[in-house]
């Protein structure tokens, strides 16, 4: 089968590799019908995630059809259409019992990281009973690909950890796919103001379409000044969705007393935490890796049409065009790509 294979920093190939086989009785083999590329895959390709070994098939998002299940799998059978969670969970360990699936002792984020991932014709999914979801009858499968990672990440690590409440003013710093996931799912909780900050006008325009009440282009306006002018004493919730010191700094400077800073961004270096200013302000700072414990709820909201994540898809490719999809996604500033979908029916 063909797959996108990591070859070490800066090296990616679209190679012939062996089809995965069942290794444990709790495994399933899924034929991928739709997948996508995540910003995290680009981080891996840059060499930012040294745990990824050359030869690894990338990808942790997708939907597909069950090809084969191990003897220990009871929730799924050959032919079932399934959504793949970016987080694998055994359902039995201490972390799984607490729904902190990100830290499952025999799972967590392993797909396209520590084991082969979804940017392939087939993928092996360990602990299939706990790591896959049935695709609801008639559901838009492209929309569901957004539920593998970006929507649960935005919802859990941005909106829930940030404790967004009715009437809140929420600042979302970074309008990439996960920032958009925060923007879409924050609206479940009826905040009064949703301010999105980015450097790209096209992304800000998209944000306004998806429910942003205000947008700030930080190349032209100082986001701290603008946010402080807009509010009396800062925002209730600041969500960091970039992962660099400058954007974290904006978030820590605009929090009102009692506010929440939810860090979603993947940071590659330390930030300057201004604890000398924050300690007296009763703020809460949170970070995390997605648990996907809210995926079943998100599935229902997509099924009902309340959440429409297919709006995030800007580009579509056939499986044979996978390398082109990578080119376009990695040049998002020019291509205006948000999420790309690769189909293999
Ligand atoms: Zn991802
Ligand atoms: Zn576990």
TrEMBL record:
Keywords: Metal-binding, Oxidoreductase, Zinc. Its cofactor is Zn(2+). InterPro entries: ADH-like_C, ADH-like_N, ADH_Zn_CS, ER, GroES-like_sf, NAD(P)-bd_dom_sf. It comes from the Bacteria. Pfam families: ADH_N (PF08240), ADH_zinc_N (PF00107). Residues 7-342 form the Enoyl reductase (ER) domain. SMART domains: PKS_ER. PROSITE patterns: ADH_ZINC (PS00059). Belongs to the zinc-containing alcohol dehydrogenase family. This is Zinc-dependent alcohol dehydrogenase family protein. It comes from Yanghanlia caeni.
């Amino acid at each position: 089968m063909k797959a996108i294979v990591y070859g070490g920093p800066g090296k990616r190939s679209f190679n012939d590799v062996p089809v995965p086989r069942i290794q444990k009785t709790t495994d399933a083999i899924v034929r991928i019908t739709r997948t996508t590329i995540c910003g995290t895959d680009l981080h891996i390709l840059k060499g930012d995630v040294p745990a990824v070994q050359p030869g690894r098939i990338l990808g942790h998002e997708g939907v597909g059809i069950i090809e084969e299940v191990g003897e220990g799998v009871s929730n799924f059978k050959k032919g079932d259409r399934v959504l793949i969670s970016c987080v694998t969970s055994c359902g039995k360990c201490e972390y799984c019992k607490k729904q902190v699936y990100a830290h499952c002792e025999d799972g967590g984020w392993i797909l396209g990281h520590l084991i082969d991932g979804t940017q392939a014709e087939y993928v092996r999914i360990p602990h299939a009973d706990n790591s896959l979801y049935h695709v609801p009858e008639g559901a838009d499968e492209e929309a569901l690909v957004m539920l593998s990672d970006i929507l649960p990440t935005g919802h859990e690590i941005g909106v829930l950890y940030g404790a967004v409440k009715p009437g809140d003013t929420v600042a979302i710093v970074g309008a990439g796919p996960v920032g958009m996931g925060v923007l879409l799912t924050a609206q479940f909780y009826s905040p009064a103001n949703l301010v999105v900050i980015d450097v790209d006008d096209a992304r800000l325009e998209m944000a306004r379409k998806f429910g942003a009440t205000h947008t700030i282009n930080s190349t032209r306006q100082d986001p701290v000044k603008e946010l402080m002018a807009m509010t009396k004493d800062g925002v209730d919730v600041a969500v960091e969705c970039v992962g660099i010191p400058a954007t974290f700094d904006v978030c820590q400077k605009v929090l009102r007393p009692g506010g929440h800073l939810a860090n979603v961004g993947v940071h590659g270096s330390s930030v300057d935490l201004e604890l000398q200013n924050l300690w007296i302000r009763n703020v809460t700072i949170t970070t995390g890796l997605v648990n996907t414990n809210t995926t079943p709820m998100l599935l229902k909201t997509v099924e009902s049409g309340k959440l429409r994540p297919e709006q995030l898809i800007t580009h579509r490719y056939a499986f044979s065009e996978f390398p082109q999809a990578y080119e376009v996604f990695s040049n998002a500033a020019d291509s205006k790509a948000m999420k790309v979908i690769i189909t293999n029916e």
